[in-house]
Design a protein that fits this description.
Elements lengths: L18 H14 L5 H8 L3 H10 L9 H9 L1
Helix pairs in contact: 1-2, 2-3
Length: 77
């Protein structure tokens, strides 16, 4: 049995990702994975912390990870 693998030519696909956008997406992913703090990720992206939080919200990435169990104990206090 022989299996043929076809390669695709992506040379015509427009890859218009600028360095600023690349840094932003890298910073968001690093924060999301826990590899950078919010302040570190904002600095990598070239944003203020507040501005970075706004961008993260726009992309649907939460900036607060607060477990429900912790919230329940805070409310019970």
């Amino acid at each position: 049995m022989t299996t043929a693998v076809q390669s695709q030519d992506f040379s015509a696909a427009p890859l218009a990702v600028g360095s600023d956008e690349g840094r932003l997406f890298m910073a968001m992913k690093m924060f999301e994975l826990g590899r950078a703090t919010l302040a570190q990720a904002a600095e990598i992206a070239g944003y203020s912390v507040r501005g970075f939080m706004d961008v993260m919200g726009h992309h649907g990435i939460p900036v607060v990870n607060y477990p429900a169990s912790d919230l329940a104990s805070e409310i019970a206090w």
